[in-house]
Structures are given as structure tokens and as C-alpha cells.
Amino acid sequence: MSEVMSVTRAMFDDVMVPNYNPANIIPVRGEGSRVWDQDGREYIDFAGGIAVSCLGHCHPAMVRALTEQANKLWHLSNVMTNEPALRLAKKLVDATFAERVYFANSGAEANEAALKLARRWALEEHGEEKQEIIAFHKGFHGRTFFTVTVGGQPAYSDGFGPKPGGISHVEFNNIESLEAVMSSRTCAVMIEPLQGEGGVVPGEDKFLQGVRDLCDRHNALLIFDEVQTGFGRTGSLYAYEQTSVVPDILTTAKALGGGFPIGAMLTTQAIAAHLKPGTHGSTYGGNPLACAVSEAVMDVVNTPEVLQGVKEREQWFRDALAKINDKYDVFSEVRGRGLLLGAALNDKYKGKARDFLTAGAEEGVMILVAGMDVLRFTPSLVISDTDIQQGMARLEKAVARVVAANA
């Protein structure tokens, strides 16, 4: 028997590519909304693996689904189909506007598929001139070269040589900005209904309707990137349901697998028909293990109790953050929807979001940032009131620590 290898944070620097700078703690176990590190120290998880762990850690329904499927069938490739993929696709179609589903492994891959489909649709329906894709400043759509270029954050896309062409960026929540750029050459507009990485900024209802209207006027497809907003995160299965807008293509990932890697692109039959056999694919997309877990997650999340519970928990979070702010005056506003919330730092603490994140970890609560000025919260959709209260008590200590350090 080989001896157990000692694993430390220092090992990361010895063996991993340095594109991440992970925290010093190494979690080894999780249950619900609590996580324990190598030293047995407990953390309350308000980060949810960046809006992924929608049922917390090791939810019994997920463990059961994974274990059962692990004893049946792991992988086939898309030379054949499989039962979990078909069951999940049927449930997604039944629950949304969509008529067809394509499975991938991540949000970036789902977005890559959506963008390729839009270009293929435009080419076959309207000809080569119709190829422009419009997206929004501060948007985020993944890290493949196509999706990172469509994302409106040059810091992520610069420095890798010539970028894919035919992509324009306009201002979020500014319909005039979009109207000025759109034309008959536009094949698709890609948008997050609520920008996540860009600072937790909701799309205004009137603006989103305006985007839909412009797409209709110019015969362009509307792509909703719901990788972060989807699968119950905002209090409905998908955020588009809380607007007057129905997209032509929707992408989903993160919470879709509750922690198991899976992504999907949803669309109509007429649009889907343009991805004929051989035009796009994925070795692991539609993997039986991933789809079995995702189906179990969907069976829990897509229920009135959980979706209504998200709205209730949103209020618990807002009330607790307001109490902290009454005492320490660090936030200018709390924005977002459901359990995708951003506490924007006021002028006194601009640029210091990471200080709060670090102090939070030291006090035993895991949070996120969205840029330099916003604390982001994306916890489990079923997090308990007790965990919220205790996590907020720890966050308050972290806030007090940062305030004292900046006095």
C-alpha cells in the first residue's frame, strides 16, 4: 500500500500552473452549508463554489444519484445516447421555452455552442454578411477564446494574440447604446439578465424588453447567458421567467450540476436544426454520471418550496447585511436578485473587496467578490436560517476587522 501523501498549500506553487492564487486553507469535507479544512476548522459557505453548490455540500439526493449511476454506467461518448441525458433533457424542455437541448461540460462550452449555433443559423438563413455578435461591457461568458472575446472585459481577453472578429460591445442597461450599433449584419445579442462577474448588476425590465425588440426588428437571435442566474438562483428556475422576455437560446451550467461539471444550451427546434450531425460536439457532453446528478438536482430545485424559499432567504440576507451596515457603514447598496446578491462598497472602502473576503475566511465565513468594489453572495438555495445568522455574525466580525484596519 502506498503511503499517504502530505498535501499543503505550498504544493500548489510547486506543481500547478500559476493562473490561480488560491487561499491558504484547503477544505477537505463539506456538509450542507458548512465546510471543514485540513485542521478541522469550520467555515460557513456563502460562496457556493461561485453559484454552483445550489444544494450545499453532499446533499443526500445528489449522493444517492451519483452512487446509483456510478454502479451502472459512467461514459459512452456521443456515438450512443443514454437514459439520464434523455430524462434530463425532457425535464428541461418541459420546464422552459426550449424544445431542444445540447449538453456540454461547463458554462463556457455551453456559450461556445450558443455562439457557433447563432453564426451557423445566420449563415444558412441569411448569408455571410449577417455575422456580427453584440455583447455588453463588463459581461462575462467564459474563458474559451471565443467566449472571452464576447465577454466585455478586456483584462481577460487581451494578451493572447489576434481575437475572433465580428464582435462588438455596448453599454449594459443602455438601450440607445445597443440601438446605435445594431443592424441587419447583427446575427445575435448575448446578455446576462443579471451581470454576475461584472458587479451583480440586474438588467432593468424595460432594457431587457428593448433588447428583445431590437433583436426582432433586425432579425437577430437573443442569447441569454444564465450560467450564473439559472437553476433557481434568482427564485425561478431561470431568470428570464421573471421578465417579459423569452430568449431564442439560453445557456445554463454552474448550479445545473450542483457541483458536478455539466452545462447545457437550450433552444427551439427551428434554430437547433442548424447544428446538423458533425457540426459541433463534445466527448463528455451528456455524460451519464453528470446527467444523473443534474436530474436529481433539478427534482429538488424545481419545486415551489425551494424556489419560494430562495426569495425568503434573499430577505434574510438583505436584513442581516442592512444590520451590519447600520453599525459599520461600509455598503452603498445591496443589489441583485434571489441568492445572487452583491453588497457594493461605499467610497470609503472602494477597491478593498478582497480585504473583506480575506477577513471573512479568517473569521470562518466564505464569501466572493465581483470586481474590486463588490462583495458577492451565492450560497446554497436551501441554506438554513441558523447558518445565515451564524455566517452573518462571522461576517460582522470580519467587517469590524477591516473597518478597524482602515480607521
Structure description:
The chain is an alpha/beta fold. A hairpin with a 2-residue loop joins strand 13 and strand 14. It folds into two domains: 153 residues, Aspartate Aminotransferase, domain 1 (Alpha-Beta Complex), CATH 3.90.1150.10; 229 residues, Aspartate Aminotransferase, domain 2 (3-Layer(aba) Sandwich). Helix 3 packs antiparallel against helix 11 and helix 13 packs across helix 14. It has 14 helices and 17 strands. It catalyses: N(2)-acetyl-L-ornithine + 2-oxoglutarate = N-acetyl-L-glutamate 5-semialdehyde + L-glutamate.
User: How many beta-strand elements?
Assistant: 17
Per DSSP, the total helix count is 14
Q: Quickly give the CATH architecture of the largest domain.
A: 3-Layer(aba) Sandwich
**3D shape:** globular
Biggest β-sheet description: 7 strands, mixed
Q: Hey, roughly how much beta strand do the residues contain?
A: 15-25%
Average pLDDT level: 97
Give the oligomer, counting copies of the same chain as homo and different chains as hetero. Answer: single chain
Radius of gyration: 21 Å
Structural class: alpha/beta
Strands side by side in the biggest sheet: 4-12-11-10-7-5-6
CATH class type of the largest domain? Alpha Beta
Number of structural domains = 2
Report the CATH superfamily of the largest domain: Type I PLP-dependent aspartate aminotransferase-like (Major domain)
User: How is the CATH topology of the largest domain named?
Assistant: Aspartate Aminotransferase, domain 2
Binned, the helix content reads 25-40%
Low-confidence stretches: none
